[in-house]
Amino acid sequence: MDLIASLNIAGLSNLPFVLSNITLWEIFDIIIVAIGIYIIILFVKQTKSYFVLVVSLGLIILAFIAQNLSLSLTRALVQPISTLTFIIIAIVLQREIRQFFRWVMVGKNYLFSSVRNQVHKTTFTEIADALKFMSEKRIGALIVFIQQQDIDDLLSGGQALDGRISKELILSIFDTSSAGHDGAIIIENNLVKQFGVHLPLAQSYTHYRKAGTRHRAAAGITEGTDAIAFVVSEERGTISVFKNGNYATLDTTDMLLKELVTLSGESSQGTVSFWEYFTKENGAAKLASISLACIMWLILFVQTGVVKKDVETPLSFQLLAPQYEISTETGATQVTITLQGKSNDMATLDTTKIQSKIDAKQLTPGTHTFTLKPSNISVPSFITVTDIEPETITVTVTEKQAPQTEEIQEIPTE
């Protein structure tokens, strides 16, 4: 019950007031936070960095509990640890962060440029024949096809070539007497861009313990990018295709040609861009993001609560005819109003700009009584007027007296 009391749950009785006075800026604020949470969820799903989510939530919950239960020692420790932890996470996950932003840039490529890096159908047979020949001869090979994402910063070594794709060229590169046969060849824009290239190895190599370095390298280059890799096993002579870090063995020529059709862009199985994935998919993640943002906003409201404040404001009469003047029989030139609002709004409220106004445009000479209403008080839309004292004002309207003029006595001149 101490925690519940510290959270000011009694303040929930003011929830209807807050919901009825929510502003467009607050809705916009919730949307921004929801989008941020949604992007974090997508990052965790894409990079499979679930421990980041667990650690972050754990620190947030611990800091929240420490703050509301006045656990000064825990609060003093959590604050610097939180900062240090997020720095460590950024360093450890720098590769995943780069992969995520590459994925975002894929969406940019889809939106602002035409499809690129397709393999022409005329080269299908050249690539297929080379792979089948090397499979029969047990010649190890690794061929990487760049798709939408740029992978240059993941590559090391190698030689530039920009050669036209042909069976003879591929076989000559992977000939055991060739200096670059142990590396990979990179195909981009229907050309052999580089050969003898070294690729990053897969971080998780549980599935590749019995496989060679080529398979781990193919998994490494495809697990965080949209690149597609073909591997010929030197030991078994099998042909495998790697996508998204996973592989499938191509046992027949038809299976191999089907995968090559994907590289031409004619297959319906393409890479989903970030923005398509962001807007069209992940309904559950979107709902969770909006719910969390609303819960965070409500928790902030519960912590801050709703407060009331008495303010004295001057009473003014607007648009009074210039020939009239007002005398207040009650002597009231100011009114005291009670304002209600969220504590953070009340803390930043400039009370000097609050005025009590009465429309005097239709007033005629005589005595008039006015009942003051909240509409007579100029306050921001997120503040509510709950009480006005005095509630009624009696005034007398009179005509202005003409100013008296003094006679000027002329002094005779000699």
Describe this structure in words.
The protein folds into 3 domains: 2-106 and 275-303, no CATH class; 121-264, 3-Layer(aba) Sandwich (YojJ-like (1); 305-399, RNA Polymerase Alpha Subunit, Chain A, domain 2. The chain contains 13 helices and 15 strands. The protein has helices at 2-6, 15-20, 24-47, 50-68, 72-92, 94-112, 124-136, 167-173, 213-222, 253-264, 274-280, 283-304, 343-347; strands spanning 141-145, 156-164, 184-188, 191-198, 228-232, 239-243, 246-250, 306-318, 324-328, 334-342, 355-359, 366-371, 377-378, 384-389, 392-399. Helix 3 packs across helix 12 (283-304) and helix 7 packs across helix 8 (167-173). Residues 1-10, 110-116 and 266-271 have low confidence and may be disordered.
CATH superfamily of the largest domain: DNA integrity scanning protein, DisA, N-terminal domain
Which strand order do you get reading across the main beta sheet? 2-4-3-1-5-6-7
Average pLDDT score: 77
Q: Roughly how many Å apart are the termini? A: 103 Å
Largest beta-sheet details: 7 strands, mixed
Count of DSSP E strands? 15
Specify the helix fraction band. Answer: 40-55%
Number of domains: 3
Q: Per CATH, what is the topology of the largest domain? A: YojJ-like (1
Unreliable segments of 5+ consecutive residues: 1-10, 110-116, 266-271
Short structural summary:
This protein is of the alpha+beta class and 414 residues long.
Main traits of this protein?
414 residues; alpha+beta; YojJ-like (1; RNA Polymerase Alpha Subunit, Chain A, domain 2; seven-stranded mixed β-sheet; five-stranded mixed β-sheet; elongated; disordered N terminus
